[in-house]
Amino acid sequence: MEQPKVYNTEEELIKWLEYDLEKQRIDISKNRNISPDDVKCEELFLHIGNKNFKSIEKIEINFEFDFSAIIKKINIKNNEIYYKVNCASLIFNRMVDFSDKKHNNKIVFYNELKFDNSNFNEIAYFVNISFEKNANFSNTLFNKRTYFNNIVFNCIVYFRSISIYQIEFGNIIIKENFNLSIMNEKENFNLSIMNEKENDKVLIFKNIKFENEKSNLNIFNIDMKINKFYLNNTIINGIVNIKNAEVETADFNGSVINGGWVNPVKFKVHNFANRESALFLKNEAYARNNIIDALEYKAKEIELHKKELINKPNKTLKDFGDIFSIYLSSLYSDNGLNWVKSFLCTILFSILFFTMSYNISCIPIFTIAFISILYVLLYNKNILNHIFVSAIIYIIVSIVFSFIYFEGYNNIDYVIKELFSFIAPTNFSQILYNKEYSSYIYDCKSNIKIICFIEIVFKGILYFLGKIAFWYGSVQTVQAFRKFSKKE
Predict the structure, then answer these.
(1) In the structure, how many helices (H) and strands (E) does the chain have?
(2) Is 446 helix (H, G, I), strand (E, B) or coil?
(3) Which of 279, 295, 360, 446 gets the highest tally of CB atoms within 10 A of its CB?
């Protein structure tokens, strides 16, 4: 009897398994001159997958695969499998269930298990299972949601170069090494029949237990961008290695490092699901003196704290102050990461306030620029470039406007002198009233006293705001410049 290339019913598969197991017993007994009954189960293969390991041809299963029901029909008792299980090079076109839902009993694989080079084209469940020997799921395509729950890995397990849609590992106990890497399905498009609309790649680890401090969870060489990565509610007393992975959103909520450690290498996280997740990686980076990554995580933590404050009901005055402070820190220096940007902002905003205080007639121009900034703020998430461009354009236009209609180009040396006096951190001579030397702040063209009074008040306020902007920017520049020498 040849192994079928397609199983359309459970009965066809059972018929093949019974035949193949019996043939293996007879062949082994002849070679060893023993009775077939003396052949141990550990010596036999349960060839559900292709019996020829060298063949690249895959076998299709076109029925709902209930592993517990199948093993009972071939007289395997108590869900204890001593056979070597070969599920390699299979295409599961219907739901797959490796669990004993009816009796809620654990399935124990005492021998090696091979699932490599298989396709799961529908939802798959691996629930309440103990793997006692090596388990290999390498080069496998999980094209629908896949669940590994209540699993004990008392062996080395491989999930190398797999392709996923959404895969969840929950209530997992790791005794030795758990190795996972994910390939880009575009490089293997001829093997995958994944629905192109289902673009979210989700990798979930929750309630993971490490048998000891030498137990490893290795997530290596993920060649595709993971949309959502979860490592939740896990006490890490082993080792978690994450290497060469890019994640859109990471969530470490509920996980605690207790005697173990997390080692992220080239682990790029675009966003964190919550502030606790950024705090988790930040603290671990500081603990290992990884200042560079710690600063990145700290900046993201601050941004998430700002979102928490914005969404907080019944905000206090302190909350509003913190929100404003984080906005400024983000605008000036990317929360302490970019000293060049901070330096440019210090000069830019100082000049901005100087031009307004130098000539109050520039206020309408500023108002137009400010309204345009608010418009972009409401309709464009990335406003920083627009803010800088608007501010620079405003400064150029306002200075030209001032020179042409009020001072003339003959006084440009006077304007530059006043500008340098303005940005000098300890020079406050311009705000001091002196009859012999009239500062531009007290220079009023109008003969109406109330107009001059209002103009002087506005100039004075803008003058002090400019000084504050300069001092704030100076502090931000120094802090960002010294970022690598700071410690948590």
Answers:
(1) 10, 24
(2) coil
(3) 295
